[in-house]
Amino acid sequence: MPDRVLELIATPAALEKLAARTITIEEVGQLPRNRHVTVRNPRAETRRLLIGSTDGGRPLTLVIEQTLDPTTWLVITGWSSTEAERNLVRPKR
Q: Which own/partner contact pairs does 45-53 have at CB distance under 8 Å and 24+ positions apart?
């Protein structure tokens, strides 16, 4: 069963990490509403990577961790998506 991400929350520490990469909380909130995928995080078994685009088309990858609510996830950090990560979101032809 795929992970459902309806809401993202971020701690002050996560917001600092995102701000260091010029990622705003508004952009973070846009990812679940747009085309995105979640994949297992190879570095931490309990975490996922949420890969998607903002309303403005900026491709972002977020490290997220599920909360007690299965549709609410905690943002750990994020970055501009790599080409390989963007390829995971692109529709198959």
A: 47/76, 48/3, 48/73, 49/85, 50/5, 50/8, 51/81, 51/85, 51/86, 51/88, 51/89, 52/89, 53/89
Task: Considering only CA atoms, give the Rg of the chain.
Answer: 12
CA distances from 66 to 35, 51, 91, 92 (A): 19, 15, 26, 28
Of residues 70, 63, 59, 72, the one with CA closest to residue 30 = 59
Residue by residue, pLDDT tens for the chain (93 residues) are 678 999 999 999 999 999 999 999 999 999 999 999 999 988 888 899 999 999 999 999 999 999 999 999 999 999 999 999 999 988 766
Global pTM value: 0.92
In contact, 20 and 84? CB cutoff 8 Å: no
